[in-house]
Amino acid sequence: MAAAKTSLQINPKSGFCSHTKIFHSLRPIISLPPPSQPLSATQFTLSLLHSTTTTTTATANFSETPFLINHVTGHNITYSDFIHQIKSLAFSLQKQYSVSKGDVAFILPPNSHKIPSLYLSLLSLGVIIAPANPDDSISELNNQIQLSKPSIVFATSHTTHKLPPNVRTILIDSPEFSTSFTQHSNINSDLDCVGSNVVVNQSDIAAIVYSSGTTGRNKGVLLSHGNLIARIAMFRAIDPFEIEVTQRVSLIRQPLFGSFRIIYMLKAVSMGETLVLAETSDLEAVLQVVHDYKLNYCSVPPSFIGSMVKSDLTKYDLSSLRFLVSGGAPLCSKEVLANFKEKFPNVEILDEYGLTETGELAAMRFPEEINQLGSVGRLVELMEAKVVDPLTGELLSPGQRGELRVRGPTIMKGYIGDEKATAETVDSEGWLKTGDLCLFDSNGFLFIVDRLKDVIKYNGFQVVLPTELEHLLLSKTDIADAAVVSYPDEVFGQIPMAFVVRKPGSTITEAQIMDYIAKQA
User: Fold this and answer.
1) What is the per-residue DSSP string for 284-350?
2) Neighbour tally for 455: CB within 10 Å
3) CATH second-level architecture of 454-520?
4) What are the φ/ψ torsions at residue 485 (nearest 5 degrees)?
5) How far apart are CA 237 and CA 395, in angstroms?
6) Quick check: 124 and 90 in contact, CB under 8 A?
7) Which residue, 471, 470, 460, is CA-closest to 497?
């Protein structure tokens, strides 16, 4: 890619090539393993961990460094135990549970120290992981199972009631399965031997991640091992830490489903970080974790930043905190950012933009770029973009608004079982249609100015199509007509707002309608 770039006339300020009308990343170029090299995401992640530990001064003690700490139970696992669990479990999955390459494993993950070991074991064997939100409804989970067609399901005794009766289910919290993590004590401790008896190609599918897609319908996004490898490498390349810390400590606030949390976990492993599991989004609970475990890195929704500004946090020691990563919705206002910087002068904010279909990250705004208000930053390494007039298909230049389309090594392979949706989203040249209306300025900063698709985003999460809320409202006999739109909100980015027409004679109130909708969730 570097050689191809040198032959183009790329503006060094904007990254725009006037000949091809393509925007190129202005970030430093990074190298990736040759695509033809057989390599699983597990092998790549552990090879980076190995190189990290051998270049640190604390190599001798690294095996006893905590990898995972469960904030609720206090249970922790060292890197030495973690590596051993991956190997032991991979052996058990093959020999005891007859799991093999190409199988799909549907997973309802608890917030447990077992899940990272399970994921890396499965990936090392070429098994496709399909993690789902354990809080999803029975109908949503059944739909996801129909999409992925798993040969095995991993759940807990608390979530099996949501699964259809005809699936082969392994209880993660059963004593029998728990022994699989430790029973094979004679396995070689060498990092490189994990999954060495299975050839996994980078083009092989690694994960099915559930997303509403660019049309709002539930879909299974196919990510390859190469997609995950590229994203891990890119995360490491944009590592913001230029400070000396005894041990990097970061937070995962919810169970490990969704592409961001999976990649976040793999990145943490590759860099030898300590991860704290805390299943909470409450501001003070998260800050208590920062206080207790000396966290220096945390991913949060934009509303969290505004809440920190407004709250009295003097009882917490936040001196260890260095970076907050914000994504999923537009960052807060100039005033909030200024107040945050005044209150927390040692904490930097990084802003991210991406979709599940892009491997989560397409653009990022670094701390030194935080004054580019309204922008989500510049394209990340190895990513290309173009801006297309949604009506004419014309390729547009800096300053002109159109649909954002992106291309790079992290772009999904498609939607499982939906060739039509795949063809509508990714063209033959690998360009992914984001459905977002955007523009690039003359300095290569990306601005998302509107959404072409109809999904309302609340606090960084895709919620529902307005038409679905409208149908739900119209199912109430007191309502004659309804229309739902998105409404801008300073804290949560967007909230759904409904216009409702009562049926003649009805006295239904706003509170009663809101209560009715809440009960349908």
Assistant:
1) HHHHHHHHHHT--EEEE-HHHHHHHHHS--TTS--TT--EEEE-SS----HHHHHHHHHH-TT-EEE
2) 18
3) 2-Layer Sandwich (3.30)
4) -135, 165
5) 30
6) yes
7) 470
**Which parts of 55-167 fold into alpha helices (H)?**
59-62, 79-95, 114-124, 138-148
Residue 210 corresponds to which amino acid?
Answer: Y
pLDDT by residue (tens digit) across 459-508? 655 555 566 677 688 778 788 788 887 777 766 667 788 889 898 888 89
Mean pLDDT of the chain: 86
Which pLDDT belongs to residue 57? 42
**CA–CA separation, 128 and 428 (whole Å):** 25
Quick one: how far is CA 189 from the chain centroid? Answer: 30
Question: Under 8 Å CB-to-CB from 428, ≥6 apart: which residues?
Answer: none
Residue at 388: amino acid letter = V
pLDDT score for 409: 97
What are the extents of the domains in the chain?
A: 454-520
**Length in residues, the chain:** 521
Strand segments (E) across 25-176: 66-70, 76-78, 104-107, 128-131, 152-155, 169-171
Start-to-end C-alpha separation, the chain: 47
Burial 285-298 (b: 16+ CB within 10 A, else e): ebbbbbbebbbbbb
The model's pTM is 0.84
- Runs of H (alpha helix) within 149-224: 175-178
| pLDDT tens column, 302-343 | 778 888 888 888 899 999 999 888 876 666 677 788 888 899
- 239: Cβ contacts below 8 Å, ≥ 6 apart: 271
